[in-house]
Design goal:
By secondary structure, the protein is an all-alpha fold. It has a domain at 18-122 and 131-139: Flagellar protein FliS (Four Helix Bundle (Hemerythrin (Met), subunit A)), CATH 1.20.120. It has helices at residues 4-14, 18-41, 45-64, 68-95, 98-120, 150-157. Helix 2 (18-41) runs antiparallel to helix 3, helix 2 runs antiparallel to helix 5 (98-120) and helix 3 (45-64) runs antiparallel to helix 4 (68-95).
Length: 176
């Protein structure tokens, strides 16, 4: 029998929109950085390193799915954010600086909010957080598909051809 939490996570990922998966990645990076702060404050070096590695892996996944052809300036801006995030997380680790991590978390949270709003814009969800000033949710999403998951997202999540409002054809898909 599967563990209930694993089953829930699996269904959450399978039932998410491509933009929802981006939000989940941001949530994972933010959570890892928050846990890194906790480990840092407890002087638990092995845990701090585990959470740093997790955060860096998630940021690398986000960066690896950028689509520069369709995303243009937004993709380049996100690339800069991801480079900054990796640099700041490593620097905070070396300097044992929870303040640096809190600042990074605030920046990532701002962009995460914009992705969340873009994902929920079509649904008219009143629960969506307000738009972030530093991101442009009205722009076409800039993450490219993983070859193994593109077709599945296209068929399962959007019925083959209905992309989120305002997105260019094919620009809204991301890697799972």
């Amino acid at each position: 029998m599967k563990h209930p939490i694993s089953t829930y996570r699996q269904f959450s990922v399978q039932g998410s929109t491509p933009l929802g998966l981006v939000v989940m990645l941001y949530d994972g990076a933010i959570a890892a950085l928050q846990r890194m702060i906790t480990a840092m404050e407890a002087h638990n070096v092995p845990e701090k390193c585990n959470h740093l590695n997790r955060a860096l892996a998630i940021v690398a996944q986000l960066e690896g799915t950028l689509n520069f052809e369709q995303g243009g300036e937004v993709a380049r801006t996100l690339k800069s954010l991801y480079v900054y995030a990796r640099t700041q997380a490593a620097k905070a680790n070396l300097e044992n600086s929870p303040a640096m991590l809190r600042s990074l978390i605030a920046k990532l949270t701002s962009v995460r909010t914009a992705w969340y709003e873009a994902d929920h814009r079509g649904a008219g969800s009143p629960e969506a957080p307000p738009a972030a000033d530093s991101a442009r949710p009205g722009q076409a999403p800039t993450h490219k598909p993983s070859p193994s998951r593109t077709r599945a997202f296209q068929d399962e999540a959007y019925g083959g051809d209905s992309s989120p409002a305002g997105a260019e054809s094919g620009s809204w898909r991301i890697a799972a």
